Amino acid sequence: MMSWGQFGLQDANSPVMEELVFLHDFINMILIFIISFVGYIMLSMVNNKYLSMNLLESQVVECVWTIIPAIILIQIAMPSLLLLYMLDESIDSTLTLKVLGHQWYWSYEYTDFWSITDTLQVEFDSYMIPTGELEASMFRLLEVDNRTVIPFNVHVRMLITSADVLHAWTVPSFGVKADAVPGRLNQVKFIGQRPGIFFGQCSEICGANHSFMPIVMEVIGSSSFLSWMVCAGE
């Protein structure tokens, strides 16, 4: 979710995004410690007129400032690799949506329900609402005419491709970003942990109106989602 004047990452709404935020904070904590420590050492060396050149050329000191950075890098690499494998983990999804990028809007298809009945075919285009048509509660350059609705606490798979040029389907709150490439099918998986409205945008330079193809995901309860599917398919 978003709020005016927000600084930093958006609030996480999936397990993957929570882990990404934890990793981001952990690495920043290490960086602040390194910068503070190195800055303190540099100031101490500048102000210390009794500094010995033999100390700076000592083999012990050389070993210390080689081993400690190596340990720090390992501490950063281990959670990074674990998270990388978590992102690539393949799990059977409960709901699959197809996403098609166009210049300059998104198309969505809920094909999981097509086998139930030929009349329940939910597919639509999602265009940005122009500034002149916005209501008081809408975000400029982010609101769309047709929101993408998904149930929360359900494992969702998005199959992403493009009809013309390169696009990128990105929703920061879910921690997902995938290129929409013509002739190629990419996928992302996530779980919306709580209801709400979450925003994203195309993250690939795709032409003159690249900044005018937002993404809006509305996460609702399962029963409300099924009711919406019936109404949308009529």
TrEMBL record:
It catalyses: 4 Fe(II)-[cytochrome c] + O2 + 8 H(+)(in) = 4 Fe(III)-[cytochrome c] + 2 H2O + 4 H(+)(out). InterPro entries: CcO_II, CcO_II-like_C, CcO_II_C, Copper_CuA, Cupredoxin, Cyt_c_oxidase_su2, Cyt_c_oxidase_su2_TM_dom, Cyt_c_oxidase_su2_TM_sf. Residues 1-91 form the Cytochrome oxidase subunit II transmembrane region profile domain. It is a multi-pass membrane protein. Its cofactor is Cu cation. GO terms for molecular function: copper ion binding; cytochrome-c oxidase activity; oxidoreductase activity. Binds a copper A center. One of its GO terms (biological process) is ATP synthesis coupled electron transport. Residues 92-231 form the Cytochrome oxidase subunit II copper A binding domain. Keywords: Copper, Electron transport, Magnesium, Membrane, Metal-binding, Mitochondrion, Mitochondrion inner membrane, Respiratory chain, Translocase, Transmembrane, Transmembrane helix, Transport. PROSITE patterns: COX2 (PS00078), COX2_CUA (PS50857), COX2_TM (PS50999). Gene3D superfamilies: 1.10.287.90, Cupredoxins - blue copper proteins. GO terms for cellular component: mitochondrial inner membrane. It is found in: Mitochondrion inner membrane. The chain crosses the membrane at residues 20-43, 64-87. It holds the Pfam family COX2_TM. NCBIfam families: CoxB. Belongs to the cytochrome c oxidase subunit 2 family. Component of the cytochrome c oxidase, the last enzyme in the mitochondrial electron transport chain which drives oxidative phosphorylation. The respiratory chain contains 3 multisubunit complexes succinate dehydrogenase (complex II, CII), ubiquinol-cytochrome c oxidoreductase (cytochrome b-c1 complex, complex III, CIII) and cytochrome c oxidase (complex IV, CIV), that cooperate to transfer electrons derived from NADH and succinate to molecular oxygen, creating an electrochemical gradient over the inner membrane that drives transmembrane transport and the ATP synthase. Component of the cytochrome c oxidase (complex IV, CIV), a multisubunit enzyme composed of a catalytic core of 3 subunits and several supernumerary subunits. The complex exists as a monomer or a dimer and forms supercomplexes (SCs) in the inner mitochondrial membrane with ubiquinol-cytochrome c oxidoreductase (cytochrome b-c1 complex, complex III, CIII). This is Cytochrome c oxidase subunit 2. It comes from Calanus sinicus (Copepod). The lineage of its organism: Eukaryota, Metazoa, Ecdysozoa, Arthropoda, Crustacea. The gene is COX2.
